[in-house]
Recover the amino acids of this structure.
């Protein structure tokens, strides 16, 4: 039993295995039957009896009112059979691929669709709060007893999902590739290790259970054959991270205690989990992380968390043994306040299972199979799948299709999605999935909808009955963030999941729908689905239920982000660009100055070493540890300080002999994305303290037409005083450039690399920002964004006030080079188009990203702070325009406003806009900051950047440095005052202080009582003070002890809220002074020196009480 596990009697709330009387498959049959009742007589003409997705069945007494998703069962399905001999599934390929079924499949009133989620991982929620705000809220909720905080290890691998041998195996955004082949092999081997001679029987039962229950398990797949992460694992393994009931409604995710019970029932590996249910434990956790964030490895992190957590549930497989000491990070999230009790019950009722196959011969390992089949990827996958066994891989259809004909084109035409959205849904779940896809396409979220033939249903295909798999692949986090915003406006939307796979069936029926019957079914399924979703939130409010924070450790980031991800920069652009890359990364992370200095020295040495060894041939990132591991091991051996920096190195596992052959178009997560279809993330230029004279400067404008960038550029160019810099200043006006603008800028930068360029063109999106970063790296320049200052809205960095001013300015212009002026009939539409290019980011996110990318940000004053609110007519016309723009863009995309369905509405609105702005011209002129003042402020900021005097504004991202010790910080002035009083009343003290007054004043910049130091007392001892962080603590100073080498005050620490603050030092004290060459730590010996007659002591009578905040240093 875990050390921190607590046992309490909760017999009446005993957590038990749910009954298996009504399995999910039975509930599914009720759904099918209920739908069939209103499809009475429906029959799709096809010789194969399996064709109808909703077959006619005899009715029984089940009613729609009883249509509720049944409780989960952790047990095996009764009557499950043992493993069977794998069979080759014959496909009717002529039907599957011939006849252009999809092209001939027309959508009409008789067309229906049925969509079911086949595999999925947790929804991805983007926290809008800063890390510090999330921490504060988590601590608040736990302190008030509203929630528990759960922390788990983040293993360094790839997402792998499994939904049964027919349901399929999936990677993050793909299936049927080397990643899923490796996944099913490792999972099947887990069963052999756990169940021994019973493995085949249990594998069959498990797959039968997943299929009948419509469930999916998600795992972190950790292996050395799919490329290097932070450390090559000694063993290939999986860890279960989620268990999902897919059902016929919204997916329901098991709680962590239920996952533990599920894993122990089936003997699957569970993760290491800690629960924090008190203020003391949760504050101690955050303090422990801050103490370890720059040097944490698996052993030290797990030990510290075991000491401060209320409950610790060890992993089935120890991270150190199977993956190594390099730990990627931790995931902390808020769960219900009852989670602690539930976990205690599970740990009591479900003890850790045995491993019956630990000493058995399990056959060839994954690495041996990969090493023996290195001719090509296909042969390697075939060998892996042959070794899996029939339970987990009865057929290889998802990987190869039917090889008897040349048909392995898994991709289906994109029109599948169009026809899916146009068809009538047969149930509530299908309608919700249609709603999700439709909204994502209308809002143009960065996502792909990839369609594939469903080979498992090939024999059921007919011209009127088509089966597909849909993969929803969200390309960037901004997509999740924007979808989350839509969910706030439409709470009934289903979440956007990570790893999102849907089975789609399009079919025809000549029978009409019975609206009453369909509505009854929909209502029943809706109630079951939505109510289940509420229960999954454990009664927490939406924002609180989704509170999560990911925390990574520097030893891992050193290897993956700084070494592996920096290889392309180092080899393609050289050491200078590589240095710029890694310095910027460390600045973003908030790495402490000391660690930055250590890392710079090590990384510079690494760059020299690897370039010398590899020459011009870039080291492959998939096997970078073959070179990095020996280098890090030798570097660590030089000193204990280096060992702490590296974390752990050595015991290299050679991957070159068995590395899986991965399709060049796949990324490490197995995404089926063509190289040319994805813009690679480019490393960014360093945040420079000053722009060196042999480097250039590029000033650009992430703004909107009317933001006065051209007028600003003209003023800066023609200013007699210039920027007080001897480099030439020139500009390139976008409206006068023929062809693509930014390649022209890049050409100018190459011609004049040391110049200051003013890029007079709006730069509204990340694609442009990446181009700017790229050209700056290649031409040794710093980029400076200049943005109009504005409060912004919840989803846009520019407020309606700012938009009104921009439109007003544009409509005042005449003879504009870009023809965007008062004579332009669609000027309002054009500005709305630019405005929406920024949609999805609020002002804080917008500024933070610019600062993090470019290290600087200049705000050009725009609106007076004391202005009166925007007049209602102006606000109304802008809101009407935004609504019209959204309607237009949903239907027509980027077609000009005069050419679409709403052409008449646009004409009317453009006139109304001009009339309203003209009527409010006095107001719009009065709220603007004078242009001359704005120019002067921008000019001064640019001067400061050129001189190196600039400091960027806060990006609102709290940086947490590495904590070393906890102490009470006392006011220095009060300590000096005490010494003055002692000197005036005690000749001995006065004599001692006279010769050391200047030394004490110089050294006593900070007076503190050290409570615990992580080197002396351990991380947990320091972290435990987190609950009192920033609280005022009284300290009583009772005596002065000194000799000719050092001096200190004896301290007695008081209490906070009735709880005494216990100091871990044997002698709590305030160090006042040490002689040259004497460390502050040696002051701890003063009491012993006094006892030996080698130090003097003066009692302070009466004692002096001073208070100060408890802080971490």
């Amino acid at each position: 039993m875990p050390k921190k596990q607590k046992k309490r009697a909760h017999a009446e709330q005993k957590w038990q295995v749910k009954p298996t009387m009504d399995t999910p498959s039975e509930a599914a049959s009720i759904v099918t039957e209920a739908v069939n009742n209103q499809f009475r007589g429906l029959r799709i003409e096809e010789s194969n009896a399996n064709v109808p997705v909703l077959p006619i069945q005899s009715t029984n007494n089940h009613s729609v009112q009883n249509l509720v998703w049944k409780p989960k069962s952790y047990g095996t399905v009764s009557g499950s059979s043992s493993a069977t001999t794998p069979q080759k599934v014959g496909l009717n390929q002529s039907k599957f691929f011939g006849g252009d079924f999809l092209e001939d499949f027309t959508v009409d009133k008789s067309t229906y669709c049925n969509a079911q989620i086949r595999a999925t991982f947790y929804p991805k929620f983007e926290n809008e709060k800063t890390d510090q705000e999330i921490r504060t809220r988590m601590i608040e909720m736990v302190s008030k007893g509203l929630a528990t905080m759960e922390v788990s290890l983040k293993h360094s691998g790839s997402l792998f999902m499994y939904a049964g041998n027919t349901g399929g195996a999936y990677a993050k955004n793909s299936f049927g590739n080397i990643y899923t082949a490796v996944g099913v092999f490792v999972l099947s081997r887990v069963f052999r290790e756990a169940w021994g001679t019973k493995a085949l029987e249990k594998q069959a039962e498990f797959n039968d259970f997943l299929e009948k229950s419509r469930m999916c398990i998600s795992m972190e797949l950790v292996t050395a054959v799919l490329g290097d992460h932070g450390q090559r694992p000694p063993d290939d393994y999986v860890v279960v991270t989620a268990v999902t009931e897919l059902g016929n409604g919204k997916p329901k995710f098991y709680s962590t205690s239920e996952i533990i019970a599920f894993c122990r029932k089936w003997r699957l590996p569970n993760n290491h989990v800690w629960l924090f249910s008190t203020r003391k434990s949760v504050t101690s956790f955050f303090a422990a992380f801050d103490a370890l964030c720059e040097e944490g490895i698996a052993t030290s992190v797990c030990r510290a968390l075991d000491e401060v957590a209320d409950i610790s549930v060890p992993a089935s497989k120890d991270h150190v043994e199977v993956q190594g000491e390099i730990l990627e990070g931790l995931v902390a999230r808020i769960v219900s306040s009852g989670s602690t009790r539930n976990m205690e019950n599970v740990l009591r009722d479900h003890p850790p299972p045995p491993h019956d196959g630990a000493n058995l011969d399990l056959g060839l390992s994954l690495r041996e199979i990969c090493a023996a089949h290195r001719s090509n990827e296909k042969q390697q996958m075939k060998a892996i799948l042959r070794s899996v066994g029939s339970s987990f891989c009865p057929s290889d259809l998802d990987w190869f299709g039917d090889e008897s004909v040349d048909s392995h084109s898994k991709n289906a035409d994109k029109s599948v999605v169009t026809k899916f959205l146009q068809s009538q849904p047969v149930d509530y779940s299908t309608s919700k999935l249609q709603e999700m896809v439709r909204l994502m396409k209308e809002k143009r979220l960065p996502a792909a909808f990839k369609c594939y033939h469903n080979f498992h249903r090939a024999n059921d295909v007919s011209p009127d009955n088509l089966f597909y798999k849909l993969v929803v692949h969200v390309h960037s986090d901004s997509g999740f963030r924007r979808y989350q915003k839509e969910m706030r406006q439409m709470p009934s939307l289903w979440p956007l999941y990570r790893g999102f796979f849907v089975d789609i069936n399009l079919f025809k029926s000549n029978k009409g729908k019975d609206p009453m019957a369909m509505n009854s079914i929909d209502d029943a399924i809706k109630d079951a689905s939505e109510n289940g979703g509420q229960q999954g939130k454990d009664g927490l409010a939406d924002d609180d239920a989704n509170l999560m924070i990911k925390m990574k450790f520097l030893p891992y980031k050193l290897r993956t982000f700084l070494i592996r991800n920096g290889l392309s920069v180092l080899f393609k652009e050289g050491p200078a660009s590589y240095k710029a890359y890694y310095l910027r990364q460390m600045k973003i992370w908030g790495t402490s100055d000391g660690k930055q200095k250590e890392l710079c020295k090590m990384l510079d040495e690494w760059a020299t070493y690897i370039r010398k060894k590899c020459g011009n041939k870039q080291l492959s990132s998939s096997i970078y540890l073959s070179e990095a591991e020996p280098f890090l091991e030798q570097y660590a051996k030089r000193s204990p300080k280096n060992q702490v920096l590296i974390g752990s190195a050595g015991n290299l596992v050679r991957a070159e002999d068995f590395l899986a052959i991965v399709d060049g178009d796949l990324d490490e997560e197995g995404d089926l994305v063509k190289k040319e279809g994805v813009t690679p993330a480019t490393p960014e230029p360093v945040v420079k303290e000053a722009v060196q004279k042999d480097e250039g400067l590029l000033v650009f404008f992430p703004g909107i037409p009317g933001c006065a960038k051209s007028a600003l550029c003209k003023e800066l160019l023609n200013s007699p005083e210039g920027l007080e810099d001897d480099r030439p200043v020139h500009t390139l006006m976008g409206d006068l450039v023929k062809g693509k603008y930014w390649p022209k800028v890049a050409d100018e930068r190459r011609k004049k690399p040391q110049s200051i360029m003013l890029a007079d063109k709006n730069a509204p999106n990340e694609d442009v920002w990446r181009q700017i970063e790229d050209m700056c790296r290649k031409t040794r320049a710093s980029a400076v964004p200049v943005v109009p200052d504005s409060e912004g809205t919840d989803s846009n960095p520019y407020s309606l006030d700012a938009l009104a001013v921009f439109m007003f300015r544009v409509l005042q212009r005449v003879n504009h080079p870009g023809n965007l002026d008062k004579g332009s009939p669609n000027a309002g539409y054009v500005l709305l188009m630019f405005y929406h290019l920024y949609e999805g980011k609020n002002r804080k996110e917008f500024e933070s990203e610019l600062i993090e990318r470019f290290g600087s940000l200049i705000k050009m004053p725009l609106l007076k702070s004391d202005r009166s609110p925007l007049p209602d007519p102006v606000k109304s016309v802008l809101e009407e325009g935004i609504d019209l723009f959204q309607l237009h863009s949903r239907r027509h995309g980027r077609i000009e406003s005069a050419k679409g369905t709403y052409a008449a509405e646009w004409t009317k609105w453009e006139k109304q806009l001009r009339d309203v702005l003209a009527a409010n011209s006095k107001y719009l002129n009065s709220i603007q900051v004078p242009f001359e003042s704005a120019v002067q402020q921008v000019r001064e900021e640019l001067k400061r950047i050129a001189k190196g005097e600039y400091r960027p504004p806060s990006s609102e991202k709290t940086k947490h440095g590495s904590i070393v010790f906890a102490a009470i910080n006392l006011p220095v002035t009060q300590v000096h005052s005490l010494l003055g009083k002692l000197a005036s009343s005690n000749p001995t003290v006065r004599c001692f202080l006279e010769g050391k007054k200047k030394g004490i004043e110089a050294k006593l910049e900070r007076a503190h009582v050290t409570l615990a130091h992580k080197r002396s007392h351990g991380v947990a001892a320091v972290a435990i003070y987190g609950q009192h962080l920033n609280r005022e603590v009284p300290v009583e100073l009772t005596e002065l002890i000194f000799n000719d080498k050092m001096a200190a005050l004896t301290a007695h620490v008081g209490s906070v809220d009735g709880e005494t603050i216990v100091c871990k030092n044997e002698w709590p004290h305030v160090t006042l002074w040490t002689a040259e060459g004497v460390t502050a730590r040696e002051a701890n010996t003063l009491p012993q020196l006094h006892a030996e007659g080698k130090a003097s002591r003066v009692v302070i009578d009466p004692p002096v009480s001073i208070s100060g905040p408890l802080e971490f240093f």
Observations:
- The radius of gyration is 33 Å.
- The first helix runs from residue 24 to 38.
- The mean pLDDT is 81.
